[in-house]
Write a structure and sequence with these properties.
single chain, alpha/beta, Rossmann fold, Four Helix Bundle (Hemerythrin (Met), subunit A), 2 domains, 5-stranded parallel sheet, about 10% strand, globular
Length: about 240
């Protein structure tokens, strides 16, 4: 497993390297800024995961992720943000870039290692989204119809995410659980496998919050938002082909 870390703080570099290199077969490559990370991406053997800090010189983590998503070579590259920055704007930008995970400092090794393996395991697009041709054949619908239905799910997801981000207290409401269940079923039927999985976790979190009001469900919402962003990008890529 090859991991690229783009982080300008030498202490954070060292901590992440030491944590990850304890895992068997893990090779870590370090870059001190986003521009250097981009050069490594272009010139080195493929990486299984990129861990990016947001605040970096020359090219920050968000800019680097945007460049990767605009390049066919790296559009599906698993990315993880590890940063002390936790403002709403950065989280929203991360979700638009379909970032796999968003982890804030201080680091917790067990959590990071779990997310690293999850991100690497999900690299294959077939694990994330069922090919639209297969969905079309399975449902007996035209590919354009599949796209329209997925776009409807994406729109509903973005609406729900915006509501919960603006008013987190609404997460406890019963109708949220109903909406999550309906969207989960729609995502599964339309082949958005990873989105369905994340929605299942968010649905479980909704049940837990009713019993444990202090339960932190926001990281799950961030993963749902990231996967919704991925669906948006895929739909945008399919439209020119369909036309």
């Amino acid at each position: 497993m090859r991991i690229l870390i783009a982080e300008d703080d030498p202490y954070s570099q060292l901590i992440l390297r030491m944590m990850l290199e304890k895992e068997p077969g893990c090779e870590v490559v370090i870059s001190g800024n986003g521009a250097e990370a981009w050069r490594l991406l272009e010139s080195s053997p493929a990486f299984d995961l990129c861990i990016l800090d947001i605040m970096m010189p020359e090219l920050n983590g968000l800019q680097l992720a945007a460049r990767m998503r605009d390049d066919p070579r790296f559009e599906d590259q698993p990315i993880m943000f590890c940063t002390a920055l936790n403002d709403r704007g950065s989280v929203e930008q991360a979700s638009l870039l379909a970032v796999s995970h968003y982890i804030t400092k201080p680091y917790k090794r067990e959590h990071i290692i779990r997310q690293v393996y999850r991100a690497v395991a999900d690299r294959g697009e077939g694990c994330r989204i069922e090919p639209v041709a297969k969905v079309s054949e399975r449902l007996g619908l035209e590919t354009g119809q599949i796209g329209q239905l997925l776009e409807g799910v994406q729109t509903e997801m973005e609406k729900l995410i915006a509501e919960l981000t603006a008013a987190p207290e609404k997460f406890r409401e019963a109708n949220v659980g109903i909406r999550l269940n309906a969207l989960k079923g729609a995502a599964a039927n339309l082949g958005a496998r990873r989105l369905a999985e994340e929605l299942s976790e968010l649905e479980s979190a909704h049940v837990i919050v009713a019993q444990q009001p202090g339960f932190d469900w926001v990281p799950v919402l961030r993963r749902v938002a990231a996967e919704t962003g991925h669906i948006r990008r895929k739909l945008a890529a399919w439209r020119p082909a369909a036309a």
